[in-house]
# Entry
Amino acid sequence: MLFNKVTIIGLGLIGSSIARIIKQKNLAKTLVAVDASKAVCDKVMELGIADEATREIRNGVADADLVILAVPVGACGAVAEQIRYALKDGAIVTDTGSVKGTVVEQVMPHLKDNVHFVPAHPIAGTEHSGPEAGFTELFIDRWCIITPLPDSDIQAVEKVTALWEACGSRIEIMDVKRHDLVLAITSHLPHLIAYTIVGTATDLEEDTKDDVIKFSASGFRDFTRIAASDPVMWRDVFLNNKEAVLEILQRFNEDLTGLQKAIRKGNGQQLEDHFTKTRKIRREVIEAGQAA
Ligand code: NAP
# Structure
């Protein structure tokens, strides 16, 4: 048992997956779920994935050794402000947000000196949301990036690391700024592209749209899966990782223009060289066990 009492705030895909693992592996004596929605709290109890589910955030975090913020990135600051005086001395607060810089900026000012904040981001997910979407295998062999702050308490970092190891994750320690840049290219830009492609198809004439859906297996299908991801979560990701996403988007636009030019000029060699390079990346992703 790693903790006496754990409180998870936000029982969606990520929060409910962590809850299931904590219960299954008996990682905490007491597990409390806090969610803004009554329907979510009722579902959590029906599923039996926490000992208690409540909308009373302050009562929920009282006496917790570990509090996990699993709410959309844009809600983390307000949640930290709400729990400020209810946290016990020595409590550890962690999060699961897909962006780290703004979460740190928004959460830190609300935490007392004797509370330890250890930001983290599991690189695992699906396009589904809500407490029913979670499952215990979600984090197995997936990276969890932990971004300790310069003055983070070592024991608190070790505890959060132990939790993610118990979830089956591989751990990477990274600087906050680097995290946001790396994720801008590996996750945020691909989502933006998927939202764009699917949006463009939606705007096409009715007839064409029917054919787009009918023949979606030719590549479009994978984009529709990504573009079905939670709108609130992704709105917050783009608003909170603005700088890094815009920087990567600029590079992407330049590369796209290069390929556009190659097509216009009939430069087959350039296209073939480019596609050979990207095929190699795919092989490396498979070899690294990150393709499933
Ligand atoms: P989700 O399925 O949408 O769940 C979020 C839950 O938090 C919902 O039940 C929501 O309730 C609740 N909530 C929102 N604001 C709240 C507040 N102020 N107080 C209490 N509860 C609140 O989201 P998720 O996919 O689990 O994502 C959670 C976090 O993990 C996000 O920060 C996201 O960036 C990160 N993350 C997501 C993925 C992914 O692929 N999904 C992967 C890695 C990390 P309502 O529905 O009633 O608003």
Q: What stands out?
A: The radius of gyration is 21 Å. The first strand starts at residue 3 and ends at 9. The beta strands are 3-9, 28-34, 52-54, 66-69, 92-95, 116-118, 120-122, 143-146, 170-173. The mean pLDDT is 95.
